[in-house]
Design a protein that fits this description.
By secondary structure, the protein is α+β, with helices and mostly antiparallel strands. It has seven helices and seven strands, in the order αβααββααααββββ. The longest helix is centred in the N-terminal third of the chain and has 13 residues.
């Protein structure tokens, strides 16, 4: 038996977590002339502090931030960034950089570019948005189109026919910026006796 839940999400309520958010806090404090600590990022986030500490440790190993002031408690140690950029660095646990872009970003870039504005199919996403470092499968392209369509991002230009895939175009009103919309998996506790969701919902990004 399958169960479908319809959840209402408060408009404008965005999860304050993930490397992009953590890095934006670091950059915001830098612009204000301030150093940062793991606890500072935690105060501006709703993620686990262990996740934040792991991200900062990766940045240290990569030489992207340096210790500014030691503290007895590790989460209070203060750091300063050595690299100033808007995009969050992608770093492995050993400090090595990840050069490839996520598949969602590659596909989103194509949708927003001149090729995508002329209309695209899942085959176009596979053929033109993948790179040597980021291969994109048919399943990945179809899944992203399906999810963006359901969220109201895409306009169907041609429904297609057997052997010919549907053609899509990004709704100009939903061309929200260079950062690709994230697909989130939500974990929650649902009580079928009371038909209610209890406790906080935890969301994590799905890698297509």
């Amino acid at each position: 038996m399958s169960l479908v839940l319809a959840l209402k999400v408060r408009k404008g309520k965005v999860p304050q977590r993930g490397n992009d958010h953590f890095w934006s806090v670091i950059m915001e404090r830098h612009r204000a002339g301030q150093s940062f600590s793991v606890r500072d990022i935690d105060a501006a986030s709703d993620a686990r502090i262990t996740t934040i500490r792991d991200f900062v440790q990766r940045l240290v190993k990569a030489g992207l931030v340096e210790e500014a002031e030691a503290a007895a408690v590790a989460t209070d140690t203060r750091y300063r960034p050595l690299v100033i950029q808007s995009a969050a660095p992608r770093v492995r646990r050993d400090g090595s950089m990840i050069e490839s872009q996520p598949a969602t970003r590659c596909m989103w870039n194509l949708m927003r570019g001149p090729v995508g504005r002329a209309g695209f199919t899942y085959r176009d996403l596979v053929a033109w948005s993948q790179t040597d470092e980021t291969p994109i499968s048919v399943h990945t392209a179809k899944s992203y189109i399906k999810l963006l369509r359901a969220a109201g991002y895409l306009i169907q230009v041609d429904p297609g026919k057997p052997g010919t895939p549907a053609t899509w175009r990004l709704d100009p009103l939903m061309n929200t910026g260079p950062r690709a919309p994230m697909i989130l998996r939500t974990r929650l506790v649902y009580d079928p006796n009371r038909q209610e969701v209890f406790g906080p919902a935890e969301a994590e990004e799905v890698q297509l």
